[in-house]
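Colleagues,

For the teaching module next term, I've prepared a clean inverse folding example: a structure given as tokens, and then the sequence designed for it. I'd like students to try predicting residues themselves before seeing the answer, so please don't circulate the second half yet.
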């Protein structure tokens, strides 16, 4: 049984993953914002699901919050076996119409939030000389990228780049890394439903003169590409499979992309080049964690 801390677990991939891990026999701390307010129902549902699923206050935009969450887990269990970066937010609309403040806020949640959580949790994993860090990414970082999702795509690409570097810097501490890459889902999760919108409505109106109905078109076409057998719960099951795999044999990257936007092919090439380069510079030992 592993002790797992996962961010963004009030809904979507996070909630599904927390429950799937508990069903697989793990003890899971489901990180959520505002347990006493907006996520009170989600927290109650989590606690009611199993005694091995526990809600913990965790806002990745707050250093105080992430440190308190880590302290809670370590105080109660003495360790953290698996850290899962899942918290994220999507926005849709023409890139120019998002204010710099909106883009900064998006990066704060999707990229800087992982840094806050790492700085709180990694000292624990390094002291253990053991652990697994799972990053829930997106096929958009290297797959087909339709317009009107630019700030989100850029943020997920930033998180993916951060994860790749962290994997190398943690290997000698015995800490393993896996990047899980889901494709686009038009049902079963709330990414598109709860996506943010641009603040500059004048710019949005200007783009509507040339791109009227584009987001609706993208949404419909993505839905058309998604096969009937697509199941968002498979992302959770993929994460469980990664956690349950023997240390040293876990994949660096694991994908579930029913719509096949091309990311699996491009990532395979990029990860091979990464591996070959590390061999060329004599750092091939960083490709696997120290046993």
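(Answer key — instructors only)
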């Amino acid at each position: 049984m592993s002790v797992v801390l996962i961010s963004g677990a009030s809904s979507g991939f996070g909630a599904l993953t927390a429950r799937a891990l508990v069903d697989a026999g793990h003890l899971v701390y489901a990180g959520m914002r505002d347990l006493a307010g907006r996520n009170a129902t989600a927290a109650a549902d989590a606690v009611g699901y199993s005694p091995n699923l526990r809600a913990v206050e965790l806002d990745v935009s707050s250093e105080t919050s992430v440190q308190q969450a880590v302290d809670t887990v370590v105080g109660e269990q003495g360790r953290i076996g698996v850290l899962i970066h899942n918290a994220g937010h999507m926005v849709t609309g023409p890139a120019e119409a998002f204010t710099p403040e909106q883009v900064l806020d998006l990066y704060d949640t999707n990229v800087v939030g992982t840094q806050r959580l790492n700085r709180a949790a990694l000292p624990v994993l390094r002291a253990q000389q053991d652990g697994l860090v799972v990053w829930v990414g997106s096929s958009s970082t290297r797959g087909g990228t339709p317009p009107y999702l630019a700030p989100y795509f850029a943020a997920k690409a930033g998180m993916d780049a951060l994860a790749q570097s962290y994997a190398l810097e943690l290997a000698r501490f015995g800490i393993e890394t896996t990047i899980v890459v889901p494709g686009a889902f038009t049902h079963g999760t709330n990414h598109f439903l709860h996506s943010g919108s641009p603040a500059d409505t004048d710019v949005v109106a200007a783009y509507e003169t040339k791109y009227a109905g584009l987001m609706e078109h993208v949404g419909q076409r993505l839905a058309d590409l998604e096969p009937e057998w697509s199941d968002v719960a498979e992302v959770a099951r993929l994460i469980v499979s990664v956690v349950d795999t023997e240390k040293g044999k876990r994949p660096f990257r694991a994908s579930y992309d029913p719509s096949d936007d091309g990311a699996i092919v491009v990532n395979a090439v990029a990860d091979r080049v990464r591996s070959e380069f590390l061999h060329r510079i004599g750092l091939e030992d960083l490709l696997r964690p120290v046993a």
